[in-house]
Amino acid sequence: MTKKRISVMNTSFRDGFQSVYGARVKTADFLPALEAAVAAGFTHFEAGGGARYQSLYLYCQEDAFDMMDAFRETAGPDANLQTLARGVNVVGLDSQSSDIIDLHARLFKKHGITTIRNFDALNDVRNLSYSGRCIAEAGLNHEVTITLMELPPGCSGAHTPEFYMGVLEAILDDGVPFHSICFKDASGTAVPSKVYDTIKLARKRLGDEMHIRLHTHETAGVSVSAYIAALDAGADGIDLAMAPTSGGTSQPDFIVMWHALRGTEYDLGLDVDKVVEAEAVFKECMQDYFLPPEATTVEPLIPYSPMPGGALTANTQMMRDAGTLDQFPAVIDAMSEVVRKGGFGTSVTPVSQFYFQQAYNNVVLGPWKRIAEGYGKMVLGYFGKTPVPPDEGIVRLASEQLGLEPTTRNPREMNDEDPAKGIEAAKALLAEHGLEATEESIFIASALKDKGIAFLKGDRPDGVRKVDPGAASGKDAGASGGNAFTVEVGDRRYEVILEDGQARVNGRDYRYSISEGVSRTSASPSAAATGEGQIVHAELAGQVLRVVVQEGDVVAEGDVLLLLEALKMEIEIKATCAGTVRAILVAPDQKVATGDALVEIVP
Asked: How far apart are CA 115 and CA 135, in angstroms?
């Protein structure tokens, strides 16, 4: 019989990296595997965007535009290279102004991209309209996207085939141009029968010529069933990955899907033996990278708390770094209530992170004691309209804690009015730091703010997690191995790394020597608390993002002392009393645990 040829996008080098390694992979390490995948016959690749944009600057010490250029050179001129964009957020967690949205499309075209898959986690068509037009006008293929998930058991009110068709009708009514449509299930929770009904309705509405795809993850264990349901309903394409970035939190493996379709009317169009060879090359390329065990696991609780594969391992890795991984089961459990009360935005970036951040706050600080900024702004309407109205009590809490009123305005229009956003604001930020304003640097500064500036100045640390064969037992990764220590003196914790006569203590470098019989020297005033003042402690485990005050500054109660980053949240650490800053006990980029001393204030 004549088989139907199914279009396959290889997601190994974007979603696979995000889902398995938290997107922290250096370009030179994976290019041989990409070359092998091209040799195996793949012609359609996910090549960037999403977290694979931010991670290169934040953790890999690389420029994402350079990565895309190298990807194009390796894949060849005819490959369909696709990136992921988040509507008005484009490739950041924060939403952007019109000029930056337009710049995003033009820059990605400039750096070799063919197609941009464009989604909005709230399925608010206002967030897809302008961004989609910019993509098409830049000469790129626009793959408009409807985001799917299954609601936690007992919930109803959205995420049905009829709801998704309502989103499709709104897209068509808006007139935004698109070349293909994707139904994107980042958490892998959509029930296969619902996938079938949705795509069957979409095929009937759009006709036979429109290219329809399904994207899902294996996190909940039903991805292969969902793909078969989509194909039976008339889908043209699916997304698959290669080992070691396949299965678990990522897409199913090409070989697994090939096996599931044996004896059916569908053909994936590639020689499976050549894919086996490419996977062998890929495994060798990635053998030095730390592979978190949760990345390859199907999690039965995901239908109750729909955490996307691309966010799950990123969050567990951050919790592992902070020493709080033991809290992960409680946070996942708490996430179910957060989803139920949040208005049913699809659990995909950035909403998935909002859900997780709020669940984390609820576990660590107490239920609803602190509304995470992103979650609060979402329920208040600052990112668009949620599929159903959020819980009224949570809306009131968010309004009180964030000092914002609910809104129904278009998010892009609000962004255009914000003087801190846009090309001119980015130029001013670059000028403030003596940096050249190119199209690329403007976009980097706008998308990543202070972290983008730090990268452009060469200040960002290397955060790639590789296995260290010499590391002490129990260490996952890191160059320091057995020379890394945690020393606690009173209520102060010191992170000490000793290497080649150099000591790095809480992020500051010192020369050291060890001699028998020499008495201990006292710490410098800025390295330890004196006991004379009041200590400001960390409420959450995280990493010091920026210290705002200096020793000797006079502060009032409630003044911001420093910014702490926890699970991509920026937490303001405020003075607990009025007085003089006696000692700053941490340094930028230093990791801190819950309860660690941060600043000493003398009243």
From this structure: 9
